[in-house]
Amino acid sequence: MTPQPPDSPAGPDSGGAPVGRRVVLGMLGLGAAGLATAPYLQNGLDSFLGSAADKDPTGLTGLLPNGGGFRYYSVASSVPHKGPENYRLKVDGLVDTPATYTLDDLRAMEQTRLVRDVQCVTGWRVPDTPFEGVRLSRLLAAAGVRPEARAIRFTCFDGTYSESLTLQQARREDVLVALRMQDKPLSHAHGGPVRLYVAPMYFYKSAKWLSGITVTPEVRPGYWEERGYDVDAWVGRSNGRDDAPTV
Question: Binning pLDDT at 50, 70 and 90, where does residue 11 land?
Fold first, then answer.
């Protein structure tokens, strides 16, 4: 079976009753309006589409670009909302000092800002997108990675998605545990309050709704890699694509 691309409108949880024609036409109208109206209206459109995507069993909301050019997509039928009161990020596995971080803990750490293009493996690209957060290498250093470690497994509070990096990739300076995107806190629709951001790789590597960082003895392929996508997903050098690098 051909895998569905990570930003396509269909996926394993796309079954269910169809969204009504009026709802679809209304969302399409809002999508067009978001492209033409002032930026402050875009925040409301982001919120609406993100909420609609959580409740859309057909995945049709994945067809709608917002004003920033991104597509909404989740492989889970619904994703809980988390904030400062209940968000937790666990670092464990082959480490000397496992840790659990709150959102306030992460915000209090030194923040790194990167501005890069975002490239989806399905073809769309969003240029010059700022991300800001804590370098993953800093969290790994604080945990004390054991000598036998070779890779990282990332899990998410949607209960379904996972990703992977080698330890060498995870220690790059352009890999973040991101708290902000486009100079504002990460919205739920964009994977907030915390997501992974792997600047030089296709966007499916930048797991949304990040909740777990587990150090492992070998690479364990993530959700889309188990369905045929490349584990080493360098932009322009993987998945049969020749896109311009994002870094």
Answer: very low
CA 49, 223, 200, 154 torsion-angle sign: positive
**DSSP β-ladder status, 88-93 and 210-216:** parallel
Q: Peptide bond before 80: cis, by omega within 30 degrees of 0?
A: no
pLDDT band at 69 (very low <50, low <70, confident <90, very high): low
Whole-prediction pTM: 0.77
- Confidence category of residue 76, pLDDT binned at 50, 70, 90: confident
Question: End-to-end CA distance of the chain, in Å?
Answer: 33
- Reading the block at residue 3, the tokens are 């895998």
Give residues with Cβ within 8 angstroms of 140, minimum separation 6. 91, 95, 152, 167, 170, 171, 213, 215
pLDDT of residue 158: 94
